[in-house]
Amino acid sequence: MKMELELFEQMLDVNETFEHTMTDLVNGFIEASQGLFTKIRELESDFSDAVAEMAKRYQVTISLSDDFQLPPALKDIMADKESLNNALGASHDIHALLIDIREDTLINNARDWLDKLVSNLERDETTRNRDKIMEIGHFMDIQREEFDNLANALLDNQNLTLGLFET
Question: What is d(CA 95, CA 47) in angstroms, rounded to the nearest whole number?
Fold first, then answer.
């Protein structure tokens, strides 16, 4: 029983060390991914600026040409500068929102994974320890019962032997 308790305490220490190490690794992963998401945001901003500049040039080209045929899908957007700016701003906002959502999802999933891993390790170790303690207790009960039976048999045998010598 003493050895099982020592093993349980050692496993708690090992699991705690593992948790600290994994937490450091996950935090490093999160920091690195946040750096990458910052670069993604910068690239999206550059892309949005480039699209806005091209769209404005395209709008100027259309306005200068009398016989220019505009595709039906672009007529509403290219109608005036305000419509174009609103569409470009909405596009940029949606892309930025998607990037933010992906970053939040990645970070939350990494932290949730770590929390589940650590809690499963703790739960499994506690379950293992309780099972072993129950097994040891059951073994001790069986040994005690066998000892009592043997002791009773010896006492009965001794009483029989003593009874034979008394007559």
Answer: 10
